[in-house]
Amino acid sequence: MVQIHVKQSEERQFLYECPATQSVDTVIRDVVSIHSLQTRIQYLYIEGEQLSLYGPAKPHDNGEGQTPEGEDASSSSKIRGPYYNEDPSGKRTGDACNAKFAEALRRTLSEAEAYVSKNQVLQKIPLELGVLKDHVLNINGAVMICYPMGLPNYDPVQQLLCGTFKGEEPFDPDTAQLWWAGKELMRDKKLCDHTGKNEKTKIIAKLQARGRDPPPREPPVDKETQKALMAWCYKQQHEKKKLDDNGDGLYMNSSSANPKAMKSQFQGMPVIRYG
Q1: Can you tell me the distance from the alpha carbon of 265 to that of 60, in angstroms, rounded to the nearest whole number?
Q2: End-to-end CA distance of the chain
Q3: What pTM was estimated for this model as a whole?
Q4: Structure confidence by residue, pLDDT tens digits, 145-197
Q5: Distance between CA 1 and CA 189 in Å, rounded?
Q6: What is the spatial distance between Cα 35 and Cα 173, in angstroms, rounded to a whole number?
Q7: What confidence tens digit (pLDDT) does each residue in 36-60 have?
Q8: b/e for 148-179, b at 16 or more Cβ within 10 A?
Q9: Phi/psi of residue 72, each to 5°?
Q10: 15 and 5 in contact (C-beta within 8 Å)?
Q11: CB count in 10 Å sphere of residue 69
């Protein structure tokens, strides 16, 4: 299976696996769907936490003291429930649900958020479309248990579950582009036409909307490797300066005289000195 590391940003990234003979069109549609569900779950995690603590969102004031539903946005006559918890931000009603149900909702949200986390990339675990859909269904079920009467249409959690939330602009599965190594993967070709027939190929790709500039290419080394390389170079320069100050007699005992010093440094092996 070819492994595609879809990296939109440091926080928004995931792994996707497919056969090398898969059509690029199918790959793009799958990647767009996974990216959309990953984004939705990440938003659900944030808004769902607030829902479990402070209850449904307050209606939006249209500037005339009335909400789109005709309710009085400034009304405070509503009877507070037994689990009332005032929202410091003032965005939610404070009518929280039963603490036991709220904890179950937070646990469901945490499980979903952990599945879409960037840590899955570090653990080399690809995301699956079916599992993502199951997590969204589980969150929907937990919300229904907490609020059997349903959430108002203007609540962000309700909008996220129904697909009406207006967040960042989603990618269109019919027109989105997938880029790798500065080149667009053409929809009318197979993946192997771009990456070769090796099923163990790994690439880093990015989604881009049609009509936009090509996404920036990934740097040849990651930030941690770059930091380690810079630290090693600084150490070498420091040792060279010491040798220049002390004469050439100590050169053979310095780590800079070892041609394998850099390799040992990255492998975490100590430099063996003789004499």
Answers
A1: 58
A2: 52
A3: 0.75
A4: 999 999 999 999 999 999 888 877 789 999 999 999 889 999 999 999 999 99
A5: 17
A6: 11
A7: 999 999 999 999 999 999 999 999 7
A8: eeebbebbbbbbbbeeebeeeeebeeeebbbb
A9: -80, 115
A10: yes
A11: 11
